[in-house]
Structure formats: C-alpha cells, structure tokens
Amino acid sequence: MEQLETLSLGKGLSVQKIIEFVHLLEHYDSDVFFEKKHAAANGKSTLGMMSVFTTIRIGDNVHMRVKGEDASSLRSAVRTFLDDVEREEEQLGYWEEEGAETVEQAMTASLNSWTPDVRHVAKSYLKTTRQ
Q1: Which of 51, 87, 100, 114 could form a disulfide with 119 if both were Cys (CB 3.0 to 4.6 A apart)?
Q2: pLDDT score, position 76
Q3: Using an 8 Å Cβ cutoff, are 74 and 44 in contact?
Q4: How many CA atoms are closer than 13 Å to the CA of 39, on its beta-carbon side?
Q5: With the CA atoms of 104, 105, 109 and 110 taken in that order, what torsion angle do they form, in degrees rounded to the nearest 10?
Q6: How far is CA 2 from CA 28, 33, 61, 75, 88, in A?
Q7: Angstrom distance (rounded) from CA 51 to CA 42
Q8: Residues sharing a CB contact under 8 Å with residue 116, sequence separation 6 or more, in sequence order
Q9: What stretches in the chain show pLDDT beneath 50?
Q10: How many Å apart are CA 36 and CA 20, to the nearest integer?
C-alpha cells in the first residue's frame, strides 16, 4: 500500500545532510519519493534528493510517497531525521563565516545613507544574525 505524507520544512538540507539522509533511506526496502512543486526525486538517489532538498525555503511543503512493507518505520525515520536537522545549529565553514562578517560590516557602514525603512530592515537583520 502506498502512503502519502506532507512534510513542512523550515530549511533546506546541506549536501552532507542529504548524503546522510539518502544513506538512511537505503536501509529500507520500501520505495520512497519526495516531491516539491514540479520536482520529484527518488529518496535513494543522492542527485535527485539534492535537486529537491537544496532548494527548500522556510515553510515549503514536501510530499513524501512511500510504498512497501516497512513504510511505517521509514516514515518514522524520516520524521526523526528531519526533526533532528531542524534542531541542529548550522555550523558555518571558514569562507561562509568570512562572507557573513563582510556583509555585516558593509551593512553597518552604510546604515547612514539608507532610507528609514531600509535602515529598519538592516537593523532587524543585524540583530537576528549576531550571536
């Protein structure tokens, strides 16, 4: 019997997490497919999963179709994996950290030349990204 479930995701997965996800799904006999808008991927295909999961934005829905004898345990494993990913704090690499710092410095330096609306958005951004 085929089971359909809609997952609401808060963010996309990194390439490393997609690879871990595919390896997890490979342990199950059931077939699993993920669909987002007009893209669909076999859950056991790394490239297919990258095409779907690297483009996820906050609040996007992904439909999961599972067919097979161990479908229930596969669905449970998927939910657990994605919940764990949502809870993890994202670690930035050296170049990503440098890029974020450069953007923050540029925004802070240019606050005086922006309109009040743009300044408000920039200040909000800076407040949420500083640790």
Answers
A1: 114
A2: 95
A3: no
A4: 16
A5: -40
A6: 15, 11, 19, 12, 31
A7: 11
A8: none
A9: 131
A10: 20
Encoding tokens for residue 84?
Answer: 């764990």
C-alpha span between 32 and 67 (Å, rounded) = 7
Instruction: List the structure tokens of 3.
Output: 């089971």
Contact in structure between 100 and 92 (CB atoms under 8 Å): yes
Would you say the pTM of this structure is higher than 0.70?
no
CB 32 within 8 A of CB 43: yes
48 in Cβ contact with 105 (< 8 Å): no
* Residue 42 β-bridge partners: 33
In whole angstroms, give the CA distance from residue 125 to residue 78. Answer: 32
Supply the DSSP symbol for 29: S
pLDDT score at 16 = 86
- Residue range 99-109, pLDDT digits in tens: 666 767 776 67
DSSP β-ladder status, 31-36 and 39-42: antiparallel
At 73 the pLDDT is: 95
Give the amino acid at 43. Answer: G
Q: Write the single-letter amino acid at 51.
A: S
Convert the pLDDT of each residue in 108-123 to its tens digit. 677 667 777 777 776 7
